Amino acid sequence: MRLRRGIAIAAVAGGGAVTTMLVGLVTNAVSDESRWPGWLGWLQEHAWFSFVVLGVTMAGLTALLAGLSETRPPTPPGRPEDGAGPPGAAQVLRSLPRDTAAFTDRAAELERLVGSVRASQEHGEGLPVHVIDGMPGVGKTTFAVHAGHLLSERFPDGQLFVNLNGYTPGRTPVQAGEALASLLAAAGVPTQQIPVGDDVGAVTEARAAMWRSRLADKKALLILDNAASYRQLEPLLPGGSGCLVLVTSRKRLVANEEVVMSVDALPPDHAVELFVRLSGRPADALGRDVVEELVRLCGCLPLGVSLLAARLRHHPSWTAEDLRGRLVAARDRLGELRAGERAVTATFDLSYRDLAPERQRFFRQLGFFPGTDLDAHAGAALGQVSVVVARLYLEALYDDHLIDEHPGSRYRLHDLLRDYARGLAAEGDSMDHVQAVQRVCTYYLAAVAVANGHIVRSGAAVPPAPDGASRVETPVLESRADALSWLETERANVLACVRRANGLALYDLVVRIAAAMAPFLRQAGPWDQAVGLHRTAAEAARHTGDQRGRGDALAELGVVRRFMASYPQAIEALNDAVTAYEAVDDRRGKADALNQLGIVWYLTADNEDAARAQTAALALYRELGNRLGQANALADLGMTHRQMSRFDAAVEAQSEALAIYRELGDRYGEANSLRDLGVVHCLMGTYDLAARHHQEAFDIYLELDDRVHQAYALNELGVVRRLTGNTEAARTAHSQALTHFTELGERFGRATSVRHLGVVERVTGDATEAIRLLVEALDVYRELGSRGGEAASLSELGVARGVAGDRDGAVEAFQRGLEILRGLGDRCGEAEVLNHWGMLLFTSGEPTAARARFDQALTLARDIRCLLEEARALEGIGRCDWTIDGPGHGVGSLRAAVTVYRRLGVSAAVDDIERLLV
């Protein structure tokens, strides 16, 4: 009976067909006692075989051997068996599997685990249970075993490993009572002393008490691998404070005192290292790029990487490229990840089969999600359930390690699990995929419509919510900040939905989503993604013959191209948009496109074309009674007038625009008009008013969380600060703007910040650094085709080169700058260059030639009421006369310059002239 009980324990602990065969062999031997010693010897000799190959745990085998040993002849006194201690002493069993070569550096996790154990031992505290969790195939068991070997010296009384078969294919989870019998036998408890009985609960409790007593004063390490639940493992926990328990599980097992350690996929570099090592090939023979793609396709899961490397090792004729080709070409990537009878799918399949049918369906639907991570709202749309139910399902799948949780109550499928879910879904109705994408796209349309209610400017056209939006549960967005945050979080998912919908020929959804996302992408970018979106939408609209939709997509494409300073492409897209709108007599769309064309021409200083387009747009808006459109066209026309040095016309147009924006409550338009009025007033020399307008604009942009326009306002503030003598405040403002533009990838704005910083460096005496910065800005302006920016850079570059003693270089810069400015009609800029050139000639000892330049500048400045350049010209004329005709001459011009400078608040220039007069 004792023998049969040992056999039964072995069968339960080991499981499997081969264990059954082993039990059968031993049972046959029972009838012939003369054969027992031979069978026993064979079993002891092949214990490793039964453990490694047959899947029989060492604990189960020990139980079997314990049953046999009770029938063997007693050991002669004084000659204990090898490995046995004195009579009555507990066995020291080391049953850890060998440390595998597949282990790849997890230094941070190991450091945390070892540090936790060391701290507890050094402080005399009880060791907490350490739960190592993670998704299938991520290497939990390998990590636990490696850590066990690393910590083995700290636990001299034994290191035990038990596979609880929580998710082992083909096996049922080991019950706690069965595992306890194996552990007690492994710890040296005679099998006849292990409690038995029909009451499973009572027997389990009795065995647990014996187990705790057995290890009460011991320092042992116990690895409970592949646990299905906390209920399964709780009775196995030792009672002594000196024992360490490592638990691995796919589920997050909740207890009161455990230390939870999640094991994630390997970093790509470590995954590559593992693949190379296990492939048996030299690294240089594999090709780094190919291996990187292979491990990426495996999701950097150690199991997947190991299985794939094994395929290459077992096929000497294959190259890494051959393997990559097989993997990429396979419809089901998981089907290629096999090594013998092992497959990655097997690790996923058991977890999936444990799910209730409704959760299985929900999991399959997740495989259709086009994006990366999702929340309960998107999950509800996919699974056709309520948000409450979707949240419960997601939390359950998270507990089962079939999805990962990310901050913000968001969830993500690992790449391999995503493919697995898609493979499952593909076995069903082929329309499921299309319908799932339609559902999630409809959800996003409804949710974006809610967000647009907070971010779209008052009076602007808002893309309508989709049909049936009232039946879609959308997130609660109570403010502009909420809307922007949600859109930022979901942007990648929405764009992925557009790509999937386009691939499924759901063209109407593509056009509608692109239009819905346009207001946000205008503000937030990234603009290269927006370009792709609107191109896709324009082509989708062409497929369906939707000219209005095509016009909308092309217009948005033009706007984004303008943001990217791709001006020729912007003009092409906007012209195509005008044509599309005209085909369907959409006057509102045509007006919008014309106004945007005007902005592009303004930026490229094609001022006459800009004014013509904006005037045409203004007329259409007035016909339509569109107040916001009127304000936009007036504001942009005001900017064009300002650039043409028509300051009075600029102030008039911009002031009318500002009044309409305030009437509409349009804070964004209000800020834009304030900023441009500030620029005009700066050019007119009313610096206090300019600074006030710029600060008001900046404050509104800050409220709107618009970093692009915050940066533009900072640059304008910096100019005013520099002109009024506060160079450090100017440097700070331009530096902040430069940081914003650099982070946003806005090249035009960045070049402008660099140019202004170059001027600050020149004013503060570092001509060399000024030249470097100005050349950098000049190169970018030329690359972008910005003639206005090029001219401004050349003007300042001429001054800096003159200060540095490069007279010829300075003259060359002034000449080229003047050519551009005269072509643009920028008379204020022309006056500025003439004044700079005059000062260069004056300091070079050519006062007569210098006076001619100052005279030209004075005529221009007075004609356009540009007070700063008027004062500079008067000062230059006075200094030239003083030099040419002797001291005392030119005093009238100098005093006139002082009067203008004082009105402007340019105190440094006033001080310089007064010192000369004294």
Question: Helix fraction?
Answer: 55-70%
Terminal CA distance reads 124 Å
The strand order across the widest sheet is 2-3-4-1-5
β-strand number:
10
Count of DSSP-assigned helices: 44
Pick out its properties:
918 residues, mainly alpha, five-stranded parallel β-sheet, three-stranded antiparallel β-sheet, 44 helices, 10 strands, 68% helix, transmembrane helix, Cyclophane-containing RiPP biosynthesis TPR protein HaaT, TPR-like_helical_dom_sf, NB-ARC
Q: Could you please describe the fold and organization of this structure?
A:
It contains 44 helices and 10 strands. By secondary structure, the protein is mainly α. The chain has a 5-stranded parallel β-sheet with strand order 2-3-4-1-5, with helices on one face. Strands 8-10-9 form a 3-stranded antiparallel β-sheet. Helices cover 68% and strands 4% of the residues. InterPro entries: NB-ARC, P-loop_NTPase, TPR-like_helical_dom_sf, TPR_rpt, WH-like_DNA-bd_sf. It comes from Streptomyces vulcanius. Pfam families: NB-ARC, TPR_12.
Write the layout of secondary structure elements.
Layout (H helix, E strand, L loop, with lengths): L1 H13 L2 H14 L5 H10 L1 H6 L5 H12 L37 H16 L7 E4 L6 H12 L7 E5 L12 H11 L13 H15 L6 E5 L4 H4 L10 E6 L9 E4 L5 H12 L3 H4 L1 H10 L4 H12 L6 H10 L3 H4 L1 E2 L2 E2 H10 L3 H10 L6 E2 L1 H8 L3 H13 L4 E3 L3 E3 L2 H12 L4 H25 L24 H24 L3 H18 L2 H18 L2 H17 L3 H17 L3 H17 L3 H18 L2 H17 L3 H18 L2 H17 L3 H18 L2 H17 L3 H18 L2 H17 L3 H18 L2 H17 L3 H18 L2 H17 L3 H18 L2 H19 L5 H14 L2 H11 L1
Parallel strand pairs: 1-4, 1-5, 2-3, 3-4
Antiparallel strand pairs: 6-7, 8-10, 9-10
